[in-house]
Amino acid sequence: MADAVRAKKPQTIHPLFVRVTHWVNAFAIFVMALSGWRIYNASPLFGFEFPPDFTLGGWLAGALAWHFAAMWLLALNGMAYLAYGLVSGHFRKNFMPISFKRALDDVILASRGRLDHAPGRYNAVQRLLYVAVILAVIVAILSGLAIWKPVQFQGLTALMGGYETARLVHFFAMAAIVGFLVIHIGLAIGVKGVLAPMFTGRAEASR
Amino acid sequence: MKPSRLSAFRPQIARLERRLFLKQGLSLGALSLLSGCTLKDDDAVDRLLTAMSRFNDKMQAALFDPAKLAPTYSEADVTTPFPFNAYYEEKDVPLVDGESYRLQLSGLIADKRPWSLEELCAMPQSSQITRLVCVEGWSAIGKWRGVAFRHFLEKIGADLSARYVGFKCADKYYSSIDMPSALHPQTLLALDFTDAKYGYPLRLRIPTKLGFKNPKFIGEIFVTNDYPGGYWEDKGYNWFSGS
């Protein structure tokens, strides 16, 4: 009986704090990635450049201005999110346990179209990927600081393997984040009914 | 060392002569991606980004530790050949005659007597092997030898409580740095050149800042409390640009 009532009533599956920090983060990551690509183009690490039309800033100084403005948004919002996640129990409740085996099982289930969808509960793949992308953002921020301040933060730069290696770390952290986003955005659009709750917080009544 | 592999930059430089550095801050592609947001109003965006850059100047000044030394390297680490970099091509470097050269001094300086190269070379010299980091991202390790800038500023009776030290160069480049960075123990007036193209007869070597804050072919040094800007700084690069 109680279950039936709950099923009809929309339940909050994404707390307001998570939704706000999610979208602020989405904007910050968007700016950081697109301006970062323009900065990369000024001195490419590999044998390719990002298409200028998919970058932000117009030229190097503009890209740097965006990058060094949005970095504050990314870092402050990220710290608020981490603090919330740790204090509220959001991480413990929703991310733990992390299991590669269960993630693999869920991928197999999903590929057969049999992965169960419970609104408000992350499956094992989500748990693994969300923790992984949080770590990737942390690595991106730390390697970014190592590149930005190789004298003032020289201990951090040394930890990243020196200035030139820190550039590579920064690049691959970006690549990991963008790789995550391809999957994340793909699923958010592809799986029915998961995008709206990220704005409203409410799951649609289960069918 | 000024930013840009020039060939890649020339079109932008031409466009940016207007100095409206972020007027075109959004490329068309990015703009189309952002359509729906209010970011089409680039004036507001320009103002916001400029304000953030000034904020970052302050944050970097606060972060700057006057006692923290840039890492040093061994002779074997030196990048050879050292990359030539300027806002113009190598064939356009100014030729300065060392014999008739006089370093001009102005602003908040007690003794503004011009200096000959011989006098500068007669001062105590020190050398360093440090990493030069370009605003573009690449870096190179170089060896520089010359006069400790702090020692020189003290010698000429510069007002060490002033905010800025500015530089005017024979290649029409100009730049400025904050006084605390000018007084950093590794900030050098470099006098030793393997090739004149690297800034003969006088360049600033400041390993606590990005490459473009290391002006070459210096003809005049001035001390001031009025923000002097710089060639790239006026086009939109962050002024402090500390490392």
Shape summary of chain A: globular
| Coarse shape of chain B | globular
* DSSP helical segment count of chain B: 6
Number of strands of chain B: 9
CATH C-level label of chain A: Mainly Alpha
**SS content category of chain A:** mainly alpha
Percent helix among the residues of chain B? 10-25%
Contiguous runs where pLDDT drops below 50 for at least 5 residues of chain B: 16-40
β content of chain A, as a range?
under 5%
* Mean pLDDT across every amino acid position of chain A: 90
Which residue ranges of chain A are poorly predicted, with pLDDT under 50 across at least 5 consecutive positions?
none
The first-to-last residue Cα distance of chain B is: 14 Å
Q: Strand percentage of chain B, roughly? A: 15-25%
Question: CATH homologous superfamily of chain A?
Answer: Transmembrane di-heme cytochromes, Chain C
Number of structural units classed as domains of chain B: 1
What's the CATH superfamily of chain B, by name? Oxidoreductase, molybdopterin-binding domain
Number of domains of chain A: 1
Distance between the termini of chain A: 16 Å
